[in-house]
Amino acid sequence: MSGVVYWLDMAGVIVFALSGVILACRSRMDPIGMLVLAAVTGIGGGTLRDLVLGVRPVFWVTDPTYLWVILATVGVSVMGFHYIHRLSRGFLPIADAFGLALFTVIGAHKALLLGTSGMVAVLMGMMTGVAGGMIRDVLAQRVPMVLREEIYATAAMAGGIVYVALHALSVPLTIAIAASLSVTLGLRLAAVHWHLALPVFAWVTVPPKTHDEAAAPLSTPQKAKERVRMIRRDRKKH
Q: Cα–Cα distance between 238 and 235 in angstroms, integer?
């Protein structure tokens, strides 16, 4: 089963690296920019996870295959640039959703292997899934998906909870992985398709008028309204 998890991790790197390449193309970046966005998206979340968990060295240092996979993804994308350029705007969120689902499982799985608690494992799964995309969007001068109203980090958290719960119940690994992938991917794709979002809590406050504002002369529309009020007031008196 370690081989299955390893290849799932590689698949997540490829999908996330591809999402970085697509965003780089839409941001009119050169091949170096494509490589940077692909790298931070593909291994950024896992790097941050390993640093938080105290894993030294991080995973791509001990296994440079991850770097070769990113280079290969960028190389193939450069050769097929015209095909990538024709992809619809909806392809990036879909590719990102698959990467999010894969990395959420990998992050939670690795945290549990290191003996962390279930809550920490869920957080590590979410971090692995969302951190790389956040760095990618910031470098491309976009608002990160995780900070928008659409369901994103919530999907990763739900998938992580499912995986940790099934692991605690000693459910076979293949079933736990499949269930977690289904929950994360299902929630994220549903949010993309139906524009599902969490409620936003905000309010608008009107600051009180300062002394200068209160003493400022009325504009023409305000004078007209004030004159109408005075005429109505006089009529009521008479």
A: 5
Beta partners for residue 150, in sequence order: 197
Distance between CA atoms of residues 206 and 203, nearest Å: 10
In angstroms, the CA 180 to CA 161 distance is 8
How far is Cα 135 from Cα 119, in angstroms, rounded to an integer?
24
pTM of the full predicted structure? 0.82
Judge contact between 161 and 112, C-beta under 8 A.
no
Q: DSSP per residue over the chain, as a string?
A: -HHHHHHHHHHHHHHHHHHHHHHHHHTT--HHHHHHHHHHHHHHHHHHHHHHHT-SS-HHHH-THHHHHHHHHHHHHHHTHHHHHTS-TTHHHHHHHHHHHHHHHHHHHHHHHTT--HHHHHHHHHHHHHHHHHHHHHHTT---GGGSSBSSHHHHHHHHHHHHHHHHTT--HHHHHHHHHHHHHHHHHHHHHHT-B---------PPPPHHHHHSPPPHHHHHHHHHHHHHHHHHH-
Asked if residue 93 has a cis previous peptide bond (ω within 30° of 0), the answer is no
Q: What whole-number distance in Å separates Cα of residue 186 and Cα of residue 172?
A: 21
Could you read off the pLDDT of 50-89 as tens digits, one per residue? 999 999 999 999 999 999 999 999 999 988 877 877 777 7
pLDDT in tens, 27-54: 989 999 999 999 999 999 999 999 999 9
Between the alpha carbon of residue 71 and those of residues 25, 27, 36, 66, 77, the distances in Å are 16, 19, 10, 9, 10
